[in-house]
Design goal:
The chain is mainly α. Helices cover 47% and strands 9% of the residues. The protein is elongated.
Length: 253
């Protein structure tokens, strides 16, 4: 049997609790050993569940150990690792939670935030733009200027106050109970190798999203069409947060 076929059969049997041990896995008696293979299968599942618990610590505290482990075990059974690097495992967990019945929306949002935090932590290194680069833009270059976001920057829109709930858990206290308040927008950045979560003020998410989708600075501001929007404050805030890698001056007309 080709080695690739053997590996696929072995992995399939590990992922299916009711499956018999593969024929090529021989015990001391020269035959497949269900008991020994079951122990190995359980150890793999426990390791994967542990990886989910490590990636989503606040979500685990919100849900409680028993419920969280049950959800993590269900996830592990239906989502096999696609990489031997365990830090890459579990990125689909928030969407898996979103498909579960009767889960609080805040739990799903907090899981989304925690996943984005891990992604930001492991994102590629890049330089960070400075306010001085903004100040160096001439009036002729400003209308067509664009920004390039830092690889670690993540924009998130929540239907719940998930960022505040997550922040409340960072001082080792129990996470704040979700309350009936409007949703929050959050920006995750990694200036100086330190991942930070910032709750965005009104309109900041929409402005940043326009820029991320390729709009020029002026196009992004005009798309909001809101007299309450302060262009300078929001732009400087993005740069100071470490979300911007480069400022690209526009060609003068």
């Amino acid at each position: 049997m080709p080695f690739e076929t053997t590996i696929r059969a072995f992995a399939a049997a590990l992922a299916e609790p009711s499956a018999a041990p593969p024929a090529m896995t021989l015990g001391r008696m020269g035959a497949p050993d269900l008991r020994r293979f079951s122990v190995y299968r359980n150890n793999v599942a426990v390791g994967l569940i542990g990886a989910i618990e490590a990636r989503y610590p606040v979500s685990r505290r919100l849900a409680g150990d028993d419920l969280f482990r049950a959800m993590a075990r269900a996830f592990v059974q239906s989502h096999r690792p696609r990489s031997p690097v365990m830090i890459a495992y579990g990125e689909e967990f928030p969407e898996f939670l979103a498909g579960c019945d009767r889960l609080e929306a805040c739990l799903v949002d907090v899981a989304r935030l925690e996943n984005a935090w891990v992604e930001a932590y492991h994102a590629k290194d890049a330089s960070v733009a400075t306010v001085a680069e903004l100040a160096a833009l001439s009036p002729e270059n400003l209308p067509r200027a664009r920004i390039v976001f830092h690889p670690a920057a993540r924009l998130l829109r929540f239907v719940t106050p998930a960022a505040s709930v997550w922040a409340s858990a960072q001082n080792c206290e129990p996470p704040a109970a979700p309350i009936e308040t409007p949703g929050e927008d959050a920006l995750i950045t990694r200036p100086d190798c330190d991942v930070r979560v910032r709750v965005l003020p009104p309109l900041a998410y929409d402005f940043a999203l326009q820029l991320r989708q390729g709009a020029t600075l002026i196009e992004a501001a005009q798309a909001l069409d809101d007299p309450a929007f302060d262009f300078g404050t929001h732009l400087v805030g993005l740069v100071e947060s470490g979300a911007v890698a480069r400022v690209i001056p526009g060609q003068s007309s």
